[in-house]
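User: Can you write out an input/output pair for a complex, sequences first and structure second?

Assistant: Here is one pair. Inputs:
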Amino acid sequence: MVASTIPFKYLGVPLSLKKLTTQQCKPLVNKITSRIESWAVRFLSYAGRLKLIKSVLFGIQTYWAQIFILPKKIMKEIESRFKAFLWTGKANPTKKSLVAWKTICFLKSCGGWNVIELCDWNIAAICKVLWDITHKADSLWVKWLHVYYFKAKDFWTAAIPQKGSWVLRKLMKYRSLIKDLGGWNSVTGNNKVQIKKVYAKLRQQADKVPWKRIICNNSASLRSVFMLWLANWNRLMTKDRILTWNQACDPICFMCLQENESVQHLFFLFNYSSRIWAKVLKILNCSKPVQGFKQEADWAIKRSRRTDSISRLHFMFLAEAVHSIWLQRNNVLFNGYCDPAHTVFKQLVYRVACRCSNDDKKKLFWITNGGAL
Ligand SMILES: [Zn+2]
């Protein structure tokens, strides 16, 4: 390789002081795409895919995003792959999405899943480089910057050197951001800057959702909590929603063949689902009639303010019931049958028992065996 042919690659990433081109970033996009394609053959639930996005896929881009200011176009492309993988299980960008990606990136208490927004995270990582420039006087690179570019002037007020590299000029433009965030003190811990803290300040703020507790503190399986989350946003693919874009859709519920299908109806307003939920309410000592999803969710939210076993079990049951009834509804749709209500109820108790804490398990055993509360 001729010396003048930089950027060259080191540990698989291009080293460059110039602006990275989208072409140079292609290996990153390709790596993410091939990882998704290796999973595409397996059946994974939404919740399983969400977990992989948050851990494995995010991890792949972190390495690059901590070193480079990545082109926005590339980050949008990576995000579109994440989005496609979540909703379709494939890497090809798609318009299909039940909930906007922006919402998925909100905190869980604000109705999201706390997925990192890539552009903001890249800026937060860049702030760490700024911290190094202003705090790591021993580093050879930092010494060189100060001697060669800032010439003993204060980094914060030094003019942006026109002959400086693209990376340096871009970095210096972010100086004002640190002031806007409230200075280093507001984003440091253990004497170093914390990317997480910077990101927390940069991330888009959103209002808290009233149902935050039944999602955040729910020990039901992640796939059930995900279904409950979709139901809370009213984004399950029920017929009332399909009708909004497909007028040819028959609105009648698959299960009872009497009323129109909606989240409110499916959970728990018809014979089958109301029988299951009535059994749950009975063991939870709720002497109230079974109502629709909205009212039942409100009831669980009210209970979630308490911190006793019954309230924890209540919203675990709610998540597992929504998931189970949804699966039975799909069973009727695709296979033409569903399990009897009492079998579904037994499975619900089993699933909750498997996942709740030991104390809650004792309580559950007590109440399902007819014990007094
Ligand atoms: Zn029905």
